[in-house]
Amino acid sequence: MPAKPQFSPQELFDIGVAGYLQELRSLVRIIGSNTFADLLPLFTHYADFLRCDLEQHFPRDLILKLANAENTIYADRVPEIGERLFNCANLAAACETFNGWTIDTGTLSEENCAELLRDNIQSSGTEPHRLAEIMAVRLNRADAIRVAQISKLLGLTSDSNQYEQLALGASMARRDREGFHRIPGIGPQMPGAAFSSSSKLNFAAKSCDPKSLVIIDNDRNLEQDFEQINRSENSRIQALNLDLYEGLDRLVTAVEQGDCNPRNLVTMFRLEPMALPEIPTFLDKLNKVVSKSAAFLATIGSGNTRLEFTARKAAMNELAAQLRARGLRPLRVILYEQEDPEISPINPIFGVSEFASFEILFCHLSSAVSVRREPSNDEATPDKLSTELNPDLWNSFLPSNRMEMAQGVIEFLKTQKRLTDQPTQMLNLGSGVGETTSCLEKLHPSFSVTDIDQIPFNRELMHKRYLQNDVSSLPFRSASFPALFSSYTFSYLGNSNEVMREWLRVLKPGGNAYFIFHAPHSAYLNTAREMLCADMAKDFFKLLPNFPGRDFADLYEWFCRQNFAWSMAFKQEQQFLSYAHEIQICKHLVEELADSMFSTDEQIYTFFENLGTTEISVNVVDKNFTVQPSNASRTEPIVAWFVALRKPTAVPV
């Protein structure tokens, strides 16, 4: 590994000052851009913007607009929408660099940047050598925030609390943990003060951690620090002071033994070529410790010489080539000015060379990666409902007439005067791929719906505002949404009182909630029972326990080999997979969930009254998808329960 240059305390201080001046001048350019006034409000609640409003500001097809045929984005030659993206990422980086500063954006200019910096240095009262260390930490974290926002604004990564992260060559993980997951914020100088693109603004960055983190680095100077991490973090964060390959082998063992979850985010900031002598071997080992939906992100710095930078570029080229050879499509973002053969230094577009990332490589590892871990007793096995099914099949056993269902709900709510034409942010809990959401927004345009479910995110498949998360533990502040909706989800969670309390927690006081529930003797469940009684279903469940695979890969061909009738019944694999998924859901609903479903309207009234809700309306959905009061006379089984209620304004739930 190349030797790190030794700087004197004064040189370190001078480098920090140069970095801060560069970030201040970058801020001046952002303030003077056409995008600043529009971007500034996003930073008042930045995490909510990423979760709920990303598509309104950065379109879904942004990568297609910015990347060339080689799937590479050059930051120095992007159209206006690309400048907007990089301005937002740099504004986020400024929140870390100037964390705790108040800056008068109306008077800040190129001419007074040095004066502002000098005043802040003097007012800090900190010794230069200590200040140099602080500036270095913040500039490192600021660069990581910039990288993180580029990936998030492009829709490549999302909320930190869903990530089981692996940080490689991470030292103390200041970039991977402290930088990548921090939440930037900008606010007025004081509550009630002016907040505009020409007022005094406070800059801040808030700590946020991934769900779990494993660090691998072989720096022997970090032994005591790593020991302290392993003692104090209660296994949520583990640090391995090992060679990269040895550390990955150790992690493989932990994953296979069930002591560690597979990683769904791998970061490798400031990649060193010497750390990856054999990239195919590295990817083979990595494949054994990551989940099917894992994201991989690597960056390179400038190195100490032009030769070192050339070696870093070559390593990124080979890494990208090896990923493509495995059927993947890595994205590269070039963050340095294109080279002039006559000029030796390579200049970063953002920041200073000592701290800046010069290139980002991002790749969704997706189906090309498999986790080689034996399932534990309580995990999905071939004769149980699998949570790893194709996401486009997840909604297969729902009423096909989603539009009619949504139309019946909307018409009923209008007659009950439970809808408003005012813009309403609504959270759809257990949304699937968002087909019902699209229907609701089309029928009632005032709804702006955010979907949340555990299905791995697919930008092309999902509704435009989608968050992958456990729906029983929501990542939102209390009273975040004025409306909630959920369709055929609550029964899968056991009609849990605790889950419903969690849902109602994020509903604003006075807000409305609309729920469609399974009914145990509905036409919906009766159809499931009929399907299970058919000879085809009996044969399916007779054969399935003998299937040697762990997911649906090769299931169709295997069934056809067992019984020729399966190839006659299903001419295409997709048709068979849809049936296989549907019939397992039928079995799950009828045999495991039906007993916990609401069977009477009295049960529903009592359930929600005990939770303190008001204006409870319990209704049924008939076969024509018309919503009627539950006490209305009927001769045929219902399709579902439909419940509307309100959260009281005085006593929160």
Side by side, the strands of the main sheet go 1-10-11-9-8-3-6-7
Distance between the termini: 57 Å
CATH class category of the largest domain: Alpha Beta
* Helix vs. strand class: alpha/beta
CATH architecture group name of the largest domain: 3-Layer(aba) Sandwich
Q: In terms of per-residue confidence, which ranges show pLDDT below 50 for 5 or more consecutive residues?
A: 367-400
| Overall residue-averaged pLDDT value | 82
The dominant shape is globular
Number of helices: 21
- Beta-strand content bin: 15-25%
The CATH homologous superfamily of the largest domain is termed Vaccinia Virus protein VP39
The percent range for helix content is: 25-40%
* Strand count: 19
> What composes the largest sheet?
8 strands, mixed
Salient structural properties:
single chain, 653 residues, alpha/beta, Rossmann fold, 3 domains, 8-stranded mixed beta sheet
Provide structural commentary.
It is a single chain. The protein folds into 3 domains: 9-368, 3-Layer(aba) Sandwich (Rossmann fold), CATH 3.40.50; 399-519 and 597-646, Rossmann fold, CATH 3.40.50; 523-594, no CATH class. The chain is 39% helix and 17% strand. It has helices at 9-31, 36-39, 46-57, 62-66, 80-97, 113-124, 128-153, 174-179, 223-232, 244-256, 279-287, 306-325, 402-415, 435-443, 497-505, 523-533, 535-543, 555-562, 564-569, 573-593, 601-610, and strands spanning 72-74, 102-104, 164-168, 183-188, 200-206, 212-216, 237-240, 263-268, 290-300, 331-334, 359-364, 424-429, 447-453, 466-468, 481-487, 507-517, 614-621, 627-629, 640-646. It has an 8-stranded mixed beta sheet with strand order 1-10-11-9-8-3-6-7. Helix 13 crosses helix 14 (435-443). The termini are far apart.
